[in-house]
Design a protein that fits this description.
With about 1300 residues, this protein is of the alpha+beta class. The chain is about 45% helix and about 10% strand. Strands 1, 2, 3, 4, 5 and 6 form a six-stranded antiparallel sheet that branches. Strands 10-11-9-12-13 form a five-stranded mixed sheet, with helices on one face. A hairpin with a 5-residue loop joins strand 4 and strand 5. The longest helix is centred in the middle third of the chain and has 39 residues. The protein is elongated, with a radius of gyration of 40 Å.
């Protein structure tokens, strides 16, 4: 069909093949060195810091290689048709992918086996086109080219000879010895290998034939090309001119409809292909068996996990087809997800600079013979999964979560593999022989046409590989041409042999198809199980497609937190990472779009499978277990393929004679004829049954197919919107292969820079929203921190992003982490300068002053200092780990942006390390990037403290007394004990006459309480402490533990020790803190200070009224309820909710204080505890009188427990004052759910009339009842108290 737009006969979207291409040497332009390969060599020389002259010398005619090993420029010699509107022909890209190494030459002495490989071109909209290539060698007939090659050899040998002589300083002895030792450059070898003599040798050059198709029908294309090649090398001309076959496959063979099979004809044999139905897994024709044999099952699952987590994957092999098979195999297994980033399974040599792409990618790199992994310079490895296919070896990134149920999963896959006789550990030999067979000298098989003989060595090869799948792929060769041409007589046994072999080939091919589909079913089943309930968490927020597309970036499309809280614990590390990936986001986007448009085909199949699961096992939707469920659909899947292959649904038109000019393109054995382009340029007129379907159904099917196969060429507005809407990394699916001018490379890099900046903006925004979205002021105590799984995932992905940014445009790679190596070089330079001690001190933590003049000395902020902290951590063994720890520490200290700014302010160092186009050298983007990171200072992270729990951390504590009212220093022996979420320090004596001390201990986590006390010895034993400040000297986090009470016998409540509840001092309030550290006024004050106002120190404060007190109780209880309704990992500190400023103890204290007659009787204060002790005495002596027996028993037991608890607190070996004892009682009552029983006891105790005013809340029955009801809401929760609160109390 010509390029006309009408979807008429054989409309392109429905054709099996879009183009037939021929690439090779252009006789007119002769031998041109491959400039791209030269450019690559030059870049490489530049990369290794060689001088440019040597590079130039290399880039001239002389590489070190002999001329036969050099690469020369190939060219697309012909392609038919000229162009197709839906799939424009990209000449440079096709040429580069058909011959990634350029032309290569051979002589009759070299191996000239034909090679098969395939490639893929991904267009900007994500749609794909596949190419299948057969490369073979053709004799060079042009005298001019042979002479040029001879001249190149003479120059090369002369140069090598002179260099050998020079190196051995021309002494004959050493020359001889170098020959003896078999020196690689020895003359003997030079003469043996590096020779081409025009009079003696025949020169061959590579040529390739290629089919470009919309769908990956690999087996069928391979058979067609092999038959075509066989026709060229056969002694007999083919039955019809080659044009007939090519015209047939281009214009007369349709794509098989979904769920059907199709037979069409090659030169000698029919070829069958089949396509999965609409509810089956999408088409995949690459043999997974080979992928498992090449990698081994364990390795494959690890690589698969890396692909799912969108790391950078680099495949490495000498064989292009292996690269393609592994890449396509692994991406096939991702169903229902699709790889969304750069995908280049075969990276041409000229595009090596793409390896420093700072985005996730899946690329394949051809290894040169004899080079090993260590010589490969990769720009960044922090996040790289390196897969050496030929050596069965993988290198994984340092930390990544394992796939859920990995062991059971591997077990299930190995069962499938073993059924097909494949060892799960992989099988290199088998794959090697498969490759040998692939490279089998095809011409040998068609050697002896006259009597159908197969040469012995070929047969042995077949014996050796009986049952090997690759035979199947070459089954076209198994049949002698004699079978096709009736004239030939064939002896019966030989004919039998051929029949057997043919059947065997078909059988092997069928086995491969079955294995493919069964393995894919196992993988798909895992996702169906993992995401069976995903729909419940999709957020459908927009009323229509347009508003959804416009606001896509601002909108959350999936309720991640709820989804994760619903998953079994062991799955969380993997799932929390996976739901952050682009492939998952796109999958959910497709789900949302499906309410307005036709469903994405992958999604449709996946959803129908989930429906099926629901029908079969009706399980409670909320019940998630981590029990492994095997795939149950293996048999059905294999049967549907078998049925299609056994019963062919459609047959295409036979190739037929075309209206050709006589005498052109005559047949010459071993040479691909010059094809008549006029007959191949357009399709047939409307004369076949396939094209005569009504145009409308045809159009509808075209549209469907276009949509379903993603060859969907709709670049309309929606697609544009979609591309912009789907945030990151997609701006570059595949590098532009066609134009490699510096301008294009620069443009590509600026695209990367743009993408990185956008990704940084999205990530920081996401991290902020995550943090702040958790109720603005968490549980009413201003601590908006969750140490959730999700937060950890986001920080890990920020670390990855920074590593990618730092490895973009590196001049020379050092170490696995680009960021850490930059930091080390910066550290080295700074330390060299003598005044490194004066390194910039930031205005981080203010000098904290109190009116006593006691201060917490300023913590010096220094990038180098933070590096040293990390370097001192023996737990971290690698550079990548150090970089991550440093990022976490800087983030926790709110210095990430500032530190990186300081690092980058060293311009000479940045210039030395980075190329001009690198992200870090783009001024404007760099500034924006730092600005985005600065926004993270708005929230508190504990991502360092909470991850490195075993390290030893230095702390500094300062005790601040209220000097005006008390002695600054006490004569007694003070002590302190600091507790945090991860442990406590134990009791530490404070050195006499000092109010400040430093101590080291294992990470305490977030600090929660400080116990402070003294032994009451000496003359000045009474001590009025305002607060205690404790600072983590690594992270700079400072905690304030307000006290505002006396410590000493006979003063205040007679306490010798107090439990102080800590609060993190936010760096914003530093200045205020610096001005004053005295007990703040009532509203802001923490509990203990309020208590102080109630007792002796200040009588001025207004007391709260009854309404406010009841509100306070409600608020305190409500906060505890909220605390327990959150996922465990996201809960704040329960201690603060109980004993903190607006905690339960404080609220109950207000209740008990209301109307309390605490007037001074003989200058002695009365405390609530006095009332409680009197109540206990009353309960112990009197017998209660109850209305009925049952109530009496209940009351008795309540009294008993109440008295028991109070006595236990009184007899505890601690010098806690009366208010402290009340606090312990409330905490224990809450823990053991006894408060609702105790309150009515106290309210009904006759003492109450003596100690409380008439209007007191405790004397109002209604208030007491509502208080009991409120406290009963805490009955269901399992409350665990911090050890420091109830130490020494034995109940």
């Amino acid at each position: 069909m010509s390029g006309s737009g009408a979807p008429g006969p054989g409309a392109a979207p429905c054709r099996f093949a879009h183009y037939f291409v021929l690439c090779g040497i252009d006789a007119e332009s002769g031998l041109e060195p491959d400039e791209l390969a030269v450019l690559y060599k030059w870049l490489e020389a530049d990369l290794h810091g060689k001088s440019s002259d040597t590079a130039n010398k290399a880039s001239g005619e002389n590489f070190d290689q002999s001329p036969l090993r050099r690469t020369f420029k190939s060219k697309v010699l012909a392609h038919y048709p000229q162009n197709i509107e839906w799939n424009p022909f990209d000449q440079d890209a096709v040429n580069m992918l058909c011959m990634p190494k350029g032309l290569s030459f051979r002589t009759q002495a070299d191996n000239r086996d034909p090679q098969l490989h395939s490639f893929i071109i991904t267009r900007e909209d994500g749609s794909r086109t596949y190419g299948f290539v057969l490369t073979f060698y053709e004799e060079v007939t042009s005298k001019q080219i042979c002479t040029a090659m001879q001249t190149l050899y003479q120059m090369h040998n002369a140069e090598q000879y002179s260099s050998v002589c020079a190196s051995s300083s021309c002494s004959m002895d050493s020359l001889a010895s170098s020959i003896d030792e078999g020196d690689a450059t020895s003359l003997a070898k030079l003469q043996r290998y590096n020779s081409y003599d025009i009079s003696r040798d025949t020169l061959y050059v590579s040529k390739c034939i290629c089919l470009i198709t919309p769908l990956p029908f690999m087996q069928a294309c391979k058979k067609f090309l092999v038959q075509l090649y066989k026709a060229v090398t056969s002694q007999q001309p083919p039955p019809l001119p080659l044009e007939s076959y090519i015209h047939n496959i281009l214009y007369e063979v349709p794509l098989p409809p979904p769920g059907r099979s199709l037979k069409f004809y090659g030169v000698y044999e029919p070829i069958i292909c089949q396509r999965p139905g609409p509810n089956e897994l999408p088409l995949s024709d690459y043999p997974l068996r080979e992928v498992f044999e090449l990698l081994g099952l364990e390795n494959l699952v690890q690589v698969f996990t890396c692909v799912l987590l969108e790391m950078q994957i680099l495949l490495y092999s000498q064989d292009y087809q292996r690269l393609m098979t592994v890449a396509e195999g692994i991406t096939t297994l991702l169903f229902p997800f699709q790889w969304q980033h750069v995908y280049v399974p075969i990276l041409p040599a000229s595009l090596l600079h793409f390896l420093d792409a700072p985005v996730p990618y899946l690329m394949g790199l051809q290894s040169k013979e004899g080079t090993d992994r260590s010589k490969l310079e990769l720009p960044q490895e922090a996040n790289l999964c390196f897969v050496d296919i030929d050596n069965h070896f993988i290198e994984l990134p340092e930390e990544f979560p394992q796939f859920p149920n990995k062991l059971e999963f591997i077990q299930e896959i190995s069962e499938v593999l073993l059924q097909f006789g494949i060892p799960p550990e992989g099988n290199l030999h088998c794959s090697d022989s498969a490759t040998k067979l692939k490279n089998l000298v095809l011409s040998d098989l068609v050697n002896d046409k006259k009597n159908g003989n197969i040469p012995g060595n070929a047969l042995n090869m077949y014996e050796l590989l009986k049952g090997n799948e690759t035979i199947a792929r070459l089954q076209a060769l198994a049949k002698r041409t004699g079978v096709t041409m009736e004239k030939m007589t064939i002896t019966a046994p030989l004919a039998e042999k051929e029949k057997d072999m043919k059947l065997q080939c078909e059988e092997v091919e069928l086995r491969d198809y079955k294995l493919n589909v069964q393995l894919r079913e196992v993988f798909a089943n895992r996702f169906t199980q993992l995401f069976a309930d995903y729909e419940a968490f999709v957020i459908q927020a927009a009323p229509d497609l347009e508003s959804w597309l416009t606001n896509r970036e601002q909108m959350q499309n999936f309720d991640k937190a709820s989804f994760l809280s619903d998953q079994p614990e062991p799955y969380l590390p993997f799932l929390s990472h996976f739901i952050e990936t682009q492939m998952f986001a796109t999958f959910i986007d497709n789900k949302i779009i499906s309410q307005w448009e036709e469903k994405d085909p992958f999604l449709r199949v996946f959803d129908s499978r989930i429906e099926k699961i629901r029908l079969y096992n009706v399980r409670a939707p909320a019940l998630r277990t981590s029990n492994y469920q095997k795939c149950s659909t293996l048999k059905e899947a294999a049967q549907s393929i078998e049925q299609r292959l056994m019963k062919i649904d459609h047959t295409a038109i036979h190739p037929h004679l075309l209206d050709m000019k006589i005498g052109q393109g005559k047949y010459e054995q071993g040479f691909f004829p010059k094809l008549q382009s006029d007959v191949l340029a357009t399709g047939p007129t409307n004369n076949n049954r396939w094209a005569s379907r009504s145009a409308t159904t045809q159009r509808r099917k075209d549209r469907l197919r276009q949509h379903s196969e993603h060859i969907g060429l709709d670049n309309d507005l929606r697609e544009k919107y979609m591309q912009e809407a789907r945030s990151l990394g997609k701006n570059l699916r595949q590098p532009k292969l066609s134009d490699l001018s510096p301008a294009v490379i620069a443009q590509t890099n600026s695209k990367f820079v743009e993408g990185l900046l956008k990704e940084c903006r999205m990530k920081t925004k996401r991290m902020l929203v995550e943090k702040m979205g958790h109720e603005a002021v968490e549980l009413g105590h201003g601590e908006a921190n969750i140490t959730g799984l999700e937060e950890n995932t986001l920080i890990a992905s920020l670390c990855d992003l920074l590593e990618r940014i730092w490895s973009h445009g590196l001049q020379v790679k050092q170490g696995k982490s680009a960021l850490w190596s930059h930091l080390l070089q910066y550290q080295e330079r700074e330390e060299k300068q003598e005044h490194s001690a004066e390194s910039p001190v930031a205005v981080g933590t203010e000098r904290r002053k109190s009116d006593t003049g006691i201060t917490l000395p300023t913590l010096r902020v220094s990038l180098i200092q933070d590096m040293r902290h990390v370097q001192n951590m023996s737990e971290i063994k690698t550079d990548v780990g150090r970089a991550r720890a440093w990022i976490r520490l800087s983030l926790e200290k709110k210095l990430l942006s500032q530190h990186l700014k300081q690092l980058l302010s060293n311009q000479p160092l940045a210039k030395k390390l980075y190329k001009r186009y690198a992200f870090l050298r783009c001024e404007e983007e760099r500034e924006q990037f730092l600005y985005h990171l600065l926004s993270l200072n708005a929230v508190d992270y504990f991502c360092f403290t909470s991850v490195f729990t075993t390290i030893v951390i230095p702390y500094r504590a300062v005790i601040i007394p209220i000097k005006k009212l008390s002695n600054a220093i006490t004569t007694s022996n003070p002590w302190i004990c600091v507790s945090g979420e991860l442990g406590d320090t134990g009791v530490m004596q404070i050195p006499k006459n000092l109010l400040e001390m430093t101590f080291e201990c294992q990470n305490l986590g977030k600090l929660t309480t400080v116990q402070i006390g003294h032994d009451n010895s000496g003359l000045l034993a009474k001590w009025l402490v305002d607060c205690v400040m404790v600072r983590n000297e690594i992270t700079g986090h400072t905690y304030k533990f307000p006290c505002g009470r006396w410590l000493g016998k006979g003063v205040d409540d007679g306490s010798l020790e107090r439990i102080l509840i800590g609060e993190l001092v936010s760096s914003t309030s530093d200045e205020e803190l610096g001005k004053q550290c005295r007990t703040p006024p009532q509203q802001k004050s923490p509990t203990t200070a309020r208590r102080l106002s109630i007792t002796s120190l200040t009588g001025k404060n207004t007391k709260p009224n009854a309404g406010q007190i009841q509100e306070g109780i409600g608020e305190a209880v409500n906060n505890i309820v909220k605390h327990f309704h959150k996922p465990e990992k996201e809960r704040g500190s329960l201690t603060i909710l109980l004993c903190g400023e607006n905690g339960l103890v404080a609220a109950l204290e207000q209740v008990f204080h209301h109307g309390f007659k605490s007037a001074r009787i003989f200058h002695k204060n009365v405390f609530i505890w006095d009332f409680i002790e009197k109540a206990v005495a009353y309960f112990e002596t009197s017998d209660q009188i109850g209305d009925n027996e049952e109530a009496l028993l209940l009351q008795r037991s309540s009294c008993k427990t109440f008295c028991h608890y109070v006595n236990a607190i009184n007899t505890a070996p601690r010098n806690i004052g009366k208010d402290g004892k009340f606090q312990i009682l409330v905490c224990l009552g809450t823990r053991d759910h006894l408060l609702p029983q105790w309150i009515p006891l106290l309210a009904e105790c006759p003492l109450i009339t003596r100690m409380y005013e008439e209007n007191a809340l405790l004397r109002d029955r209604m208030t007491v009842n509502s208080l009991i009801r409120v406290l009963q809401t805490l009955q269901d929760f399992n409350i665990v108290l911090e050890g420091s609160l109830i130490k020494g109390v034995d109940v």
